[in-house]
Amino acid sequence: MSATELYADLKRKLSTIVPDFELQYKAELATQINRLKQEKNAVILGHNYMEPALYHSIPDHAGDSLELSRKAAQTDKDIIVFCGVRFMAETAKILSPDKTVLIPAEKAGCSLAESITAEDVRTLKKRFPGVPVVTYVNTYAEVKAESDVCCTSGNAVAVVESFADETVIFLPDEYLARNVARETGKHIVFPAQLNGENGTDIDYQLVGWHGKCEVHDKFTVADISNVRKQFPDVVILAHPECHPDVVAASDFSGSTSAMIRYVEQTSAPHCLLLTECSMGDNIIAANPQKEILRLCSVRCPHMNEITLEDTLAALQHGKYAVEVPEPVRSKAARAVQRMLTIG
User: Fold this and answer.
1) Is residue 278 scored above 80 in pLDDT?
2) Of the residues 18, 28, 227, 341, which has the fewest C-beta atoms closer than 10 A?
3) Could you read off the pLDDT of 102-144 as tens digits, one per residue?
4) Whole-prediction pTM value?
5) What's the N-to-C CA distance of the chain in angstroms?
6) In this predicted model, which residue has the larger pLDDT, 33 or 260?
7) Measuring CA to CA, how many Å separate 118 from each of 115, 123, 324?
């Protein structure tokens, strides 16, 4: 596709979201990137939280963490460029160790991933010997390596239920853990609750951690109440990283891909998505016939690190290459592969 054709396509999708002069500039960049990825036998994976002009122009595959993990494992390309945050690129390297994996921004972190360390997990395992560890995919490789199985927001319930009646350590997202506990009927506790004289007398089936997504933590029940007053017929979709009270007050909760499917299939007169801002814009662009409301609390500062300019530079100069030490990678791969098997 030429720059002129790509600009026309972006304008059709994004004219109400992105200024025209910016679309022209980004269409030129995207055309260079698409040409270069062919020359270098590269594949570009784009998370649903990428900014709209990037999301709608260069990814060969777009989706949530689970979908993109599968694509990373299946690709026959020499280079994987991951337009997402570092833990996602690490997961691609874990699954495709023989591939070159590039992340366009050197500092694209995650508040959840940074809320827990491998040493934290080892400490919990000593405290709860023999208890299986389920780790959210939003973690770094060293943490995955200390886990029995990983999960995404889309399959967290299935992963926890795969352990039947066993007690499970679920890390590190507090809200996702509480939402999973409610859906599975498990009583959740946090390590601090088990300290003191009565700690050993508490009945529990899930052990959580106090990590949070700085984006989803912004949404409140008051937000929902205010929107419903103005739009009584609105259907509200909340990501399961939102506070449990927010999820309970919503009409649907699911992964980013599940939210996209819901919007595509619903006949509701209005939809409101409680998730990252750019994803809302991307869904609006892909579904112009739908009435989708915006409640943009915050753009993820980490996802915002990924730009078309830096993606072009990544392909031109081979930066920034993601490496995972083999002892860590092989252990993490077992946990990730179990996640993919559960689906």
Assistant:
1) yes
2) 341
3) 999 988 999 999 999 999 999 999 999 999 999 999 999 999 9
4) 0.91
5) 34
6) 33
7) 11, 9, 14
